[in-house]
Every structure is written in C-alpha cells, then in structure tokens.
Amino acid sequence: MLRADARENRTRVLEAARELFARRGIDVPMTTIARHAGVGVATLYRRFPTREALVTEVFTDELAACASVVDDALADPDPWYGFSRMIEKVCTMQATDRGFTEAFLTAFPHAVDFERERRRAEQGFAEVVRRAKASGELRADFHPSDLTVVLLANCGATTRIDPATAATTSRRLVAHFLRAFRTGSSDEDTPLPPPAPLGLDQLPRQHCPGPQRTRAV
To answer: Where are the stretches annotated Disordered (predicted)?
Structure first.
C-alpha cells in the first residue's frame, strides 16, 4: 500500500497528465508533466516507469466510457439511431479531449487490459455498423474503417480552436457526415446544428502549403 504522500504524488501526476494530454495530445514530454504536477521526474518515473503506463492509466476511464457508448448503441432498438448517437458521442469526446483519441488509435502491446477493452469497443462498433446496414438506413458501402476517417476529420476541425467553438464545429461536421452516410433523403428537412463562428483566416497556415517553387540555379 502506498504511503499518503506517495498517493498524493500519484494523483497529482495523473491530474497533470490528464490536463496536458487533453490539450496537447499524448506526446507531451514526461518532464513537462512532472513540472506541471509539481513533482520531480524521478518521482514520476517511480510511479509510471513508461509513457505507455501513464497514458493507459490516464485514459482507462475514458476507454470504458467509449466502450459503454458502443454498448448503448448495440442495445438501442433502432439501429440507425444507435449508430448515429454513437458517432456523435465519440466525436464529442474527441473534440473535448485530444489525448483520448490519440490513445485510442495507438497500440499499447504491454497494456493487456487496455488493449482488450479497445478490441471490445472496435468489435462492438463493427456490429453496430452491421445492424445499421441490415436496417437499410446506413449505406451499404460504409466500412468500419470509415470511423477513422471521421475521427481524422473531426480532429483536424477541432484541434486549434477554443473548446466551445470546437464543440460547435464538431456537432455540425458530424451532422454533415451522418447525412452522407444515411440512405434516402429522410434528413433533408431536419436543420443542421448551428454553424461555428469560423473564418478562413483561422485555418492553420502550416496545413495549407502554397505552390512549390523551383529553386533558382
């Protein structure tokens, strides 16, 4: 059993890592996490000897919540509603916590419990897709890997803006995706969520390279 001061240090490290991972992703230097937690680097490594150990500990609850979202979708009697609510909830989680998506999409071969829970979520998602297709509401050519495309787009749209705008942007983007994924035109009369207050000047310049110039000889 950990001493009281050791438990306190462990909690401080986890809280600092959770905050930094959510804002900056899981590649934050361990030294930065230690400094943010107010502990020495040696103390951090004593509690969490590897980045994998720290990341998986931080996101265990979030992974369980994600798996619960999939379970709710599987239990929904309306396969399309279950599918669409699942996409919305997962993208909301991503928009508010950048680190979780990175952790979910990263392999952690030594974190057996984390990997098992992630595989369960992935298998459940594939079954949600199968049910929605069988209902005739989801396009027949939708593939489970399209979830990665959705998450990549959602990440790109929400990473460098303030949290409130990120949430608004995510909701509208997901609504566009779901309209594209659904068969027929039953959603045409349903208004989209409000647009986010974004202009082209907010597009990160490093993501928009200009034309390649030929070097002068």
So the answer is: 184-217
CA nearest neighbour of 65 among 84, 83, 92 = 92
Write down the CATH number for the domain with range 4-50.
Answer: 1.10.10.60
Query: pLDDT confidence of 201, banded at 50, 70, 90?
Result: low
pTM equals 0.75
What is the topology classification, in CATH, of domain 60-185? Tetracycline Repressor; domain 2 (1.10.357)
Q: How many CB atoms lie within 10 A of CB 151?
A: 17
**Structure tokens belonging to residue 26:** 């899981």
* Cα 176–chain centre separation: 18
The SS3 of residue 30 is helix
Question: Which residue type does 120 have?
Answer: R
Q: What is the mean pLDDT of residues 43-70?
A: 90
Q: Is the pLDDT of residue 184 over 80?
A: no
Q: From CA 125, how far away is CA 73, in angstroms rounded?
A: 9
Q: How confident is the prediction for the chain on average, in pLDDT?
A: 84
